[in-house]
Amino acid sequence: MLIRTILIYLVACGLLACENDETKTPTIQCAAGTILNGTGEACEANLGAGSVINDVGQVVIDPDVIAANERILADERDQARADGRSEGIASVTPLNCAEGTAINEAGDACEPTSDYRSAAVEEGRLAGVASVTPLRCAEGAGINEAGDACEPTAEYRAAAVEEGRLAGVASVIPLRCDEGASVNSTGNACEPNLSADVSIDDEDTIVPTSLFAAGICEGAGGNYSVETRVCDPAVASYSCFRGGFCGEAARLGLEIDQHHLGVLPEQVGCTDSQEGMESWSVGTELAFRSTASLNPGSPEWRSFALRLWLCR
Hints:
With 312 residues, the chain is of the alpha+beta class. It has a domain of 113 residues. The protein is built from eight helices and 14 strands. The strands form seven sheets. It has a two-stranded antiparallel ribbon. A two-stranded antiparallel sheet has the order 3-4. It has a two-stranded antiparallel sheet with strand order 5-6.
């Protein structure tokens, strides 16, 4: 009877307990390393950066992170090896022995060969011999007071001074102007004595003035051009034979009108294409041959020119 009463009590308590459980929400306690999930119904692993849950439900380091770290470590190791290799290569200096040297007995350095030393000694000997010059003073020089050099003698200096003086005198040329020239206004040069009939052109040549040439041309019936300095025969009756004859006669010193002197054939329109008694060159040749046997300025020469009546 007692046992039955106890059982009834226990059943009643159990039913009471169940009724309380259905009306009260249980409290969830999450251990270290876990946190309550978003729905609040369960605890889940509190994963840090680089952590994941594998296929069997274990929290592990992310394989991709491990692989990336391994690659970084591998690259750093390879770079360290390359740097170390480069430093090692740079620290090693090849043992290259140039001409005149050879590797020493220890094999760690180059040293001069015996042949190189012998050649160097001989080179020094020859240089020493060449550097010693006997003190020999040539003419005009004598040994100085210290006895270690030559110096010009007093006589040599006096002769040199005199030579320079004579050269200076000879270098001074007096200003002497020849016939047809005179000393210019500054007194440092000669200049031509120009008449009114001549002038100096752009080529520093003395030529007849345009006025003078025009007078000769127009006096012979020609037409003179100031621009070209030519007497046009197309509109003139200028005699090229007469011009050549009189010009040559004047050049040879015949006493005729001096306006014939210095006239050029191209100035009066005369060319070599003309022939016979119209040719300038024929007139020139005739005057030269006719006067070759006469004494310039003699009565015979003057009479010859007057008889021809060409050079008036």
